[in-house]
Amino acid sequence: MPRKRANPRRNRPVPRRKRRLPLWRIVRSGLAVLVWAAVAVALLVGWYAYDLPDIEQLEATAGKRGPTVTIHAADGSVLAHYGNLYGVAVQLHELPPHLPRAVLAIEDRRFYAHSGIDPRGIARAAWDNIVAGGLRSGGSTISQQLAKNLFLSPDRTLRRKVQEALLAFWLERRFGKDQILTIYLNRVYFGQGAYGVDAAARRYFGKPATAVTIYESALLAGLLKAPSRYNPMSDRRLADSRARVVLDSMVEAGWLTESQAGRARDGKAVVNAGATGGQGRYAADWLLERARDYVGGAAGDLVVVTTIEPRLQWLAEQAVARNLEAAGPRRAGQAALVAMRPDGAVVAMVGGRSYAESQFNRATQALRQPGSAFKLFVYLAALEAGIRPDDVVEDRPITVAGWTPRNAGRAHRGDVTLREAMARSLNSVAVVLSESVGRDNVAAVARRLGITSPLRTDPALALGAHEVTLLELTAAYAVMASGGYGVWPYGVTEIRSDDGRVLYRRSGGGPGRVVAAPDVAAINDILTAATSWGTGRAARLDRPAAGKTGTSQDSRDAWFVGYTPELAAGVWFGNDDNAPMDRIGGGSFPALTWRGFMEPALAGRPARPLPGVATAPADPRASAPGR
């Protein structure tokens, strides 16, 4: 019989059908997950809500702040402000509509539509961050920001974000939208120590918040993202760029037309020049320390009235910046200038290239070698010993204790008058004079004229090998402008409390006469020659002026200090690391900076003779090499 073929289908294993879960089971599992998730969220919220700050103390915390110090220039304008500044509390209806709209346009456009948390804003910020590949924008609402600013730390933690959301909901329940926005605008930080729109408007524009323009509103709103980065006092171009972004947002929100935004961009904003935080901060820092010395730990806000003259301060800043740029950073990294009246009132001070980059004040804190600018004290000691400007001295090689000083150019001129020796800054003559009158006497003269830095009485003292500050050296030269009366540099004239009580008022003057009138006349004679045809001739003015150059070894320091009957000023160029400069001496950029400041500072004032000098002494030689 034929064998039957096996049926291959019959021998295959029958696959088991997949059992489908009933829909009710799926729903039950999902509900269980949701319930447990809700429980976990509730526990998390409860845990973080347990140590929420005392939100009932909102009103009490609103008035708490630290003391402030406002530094005023001589004309009453604000030079600097220390501590946090809180302006007048303003109501929303008191502000121009474009100010709150600018803030809402860039910070929380849906503020009046959400209940404290904006899911749409969070989703939009998340998408922006994904597209940007990093954290670029946040989804925090105005209510969340206010909660964080009032009650929480800036730490980016889950705890802080949960508590921020809880507090935002509480604020929305406790206050109306207009109240929340009002509190926010009065408390948010705008940089430069300014809290609230009124303080910010006064700090940046010198006007109340009720008077700001559309562009000024946009600039203020732009600060909220990063107050330091978009600060118009430190980077005006970046601040303007951010303000344009705010204006575009206002157009998108329908709160401005394109033509209104265009006019606003054209109008720009004038940043308050009295509080620029620029080079004037060097002077303000110095004045703040002086004020603390006078009133100690006085409580409350203080107003400090000073001698700084804004026009002269601006001229000083311009002269320093212009000549530093001309020299180039590779040749001279830093410069400083200080100017004062003959009675010691400091009217301008520049402590370095950039206050933003370095707050070290090279006019008051830096100890540097004055070089030949120290010869003032050597020659004054010689004059007091009986030598006169027309007396002849010999410029010849000299060796003291194994040390042989050299003149610039290494040449010697033989017989010269004392006047010519100073004017041409002959080093060997200065050492001869110092040795003949006694180094102790030279140091004593320097201390009498106000040098307080330590001085060693070694042979190099005559050539300014020991360090002094620009402020004390300038004050010593100012003694000659004052006719021989001692000068104590000062900058604070009055300190008042916030309620108007006078806590300090300057009275009296300096130490009285410290140099006899005939010796003042003789010094003015020889220093006039130094400026007219000597090493300082680059500083020559169209009026009587006297001064002296100074260059330390290897051009590590370059100075020019000089004066007229109205004003004394000192200039220093150098590098913070004490590196040599490239062919910069006292007769180059320092002298040019001095003249660049003094000429406009004295413009329009009648020329006056220096004490004891009728006319400038003539140059006894046809050529006058200098350094």
Describe the structure in your own words.
With 627 residues, this protein is of the alpha+beta class. Among the domains are: 86-273, Penicillin binding protein transpeptidase fold, CATH 1.10.3810; 317-368 and 467-602, 3-Layer(aba) Sandwich (Beta-lactamase). 41% of the residues lie in helices and 11% in strands. The protein is built from 21 helices and 14 strands. The strands form 4 sheets. Strands 2-1-5-10-11 form a 5-stranded mixed sheet, with helices on one face. A 5-stranded antiparallel sheet has the order 7-6-14-13-12, with helices on both faces. A two-stranded parallel ribbon has the order 3-4. β6 and β7 form a beta hairpin. α4 runs parallel beside α10 (214-223), α10 crosses α11 and α15 crosses α18 (439-448). The longest helix is centred in the N-terminal third of the chain and has 28 residues, at 23-50. It is elongated, with a radius of gyration of 36 Å. The model is unreliable at 273-277 and 622-627 (pLDDT under 50).
Portion in helices? 40-55%
Given the structure, what is the number of helices? 21
Radius of gyration, in angstroms, nearest whole number:
36 Å
* Global outline: elongated
Instruction: Give me the side-by-side strand order of the main sheet.
Output: 2-1-5-10-11
- As a percent range, the share of strand residues is 5-15%
**Which spans of ≥5 residues are poorly predicted at pLDDT below 50?**
273-277, 622-627
Main beta sheet: strand number and arrangement?
A: 5 strands, mixed
Average pLDDT reading: 84
CATH-level-4 superfamily name of one domain: Biosynthetic peptidoglycan transglycosylase-like
CATH fold name of one domain:
Penicillin binding protein transpeptidase fold
Under the CATH scheme, which architecture of one domain would be assigned? Answer: Orthogonal Bundle
The total strand number stands at: 14
Distance between the termini: 133 Å
The CATH C-level class name of one domain: Mainly Alpha
Oligomer: single chain
Instruction: Please identify the structural class as seen in this structure.
Output: alpha+beta
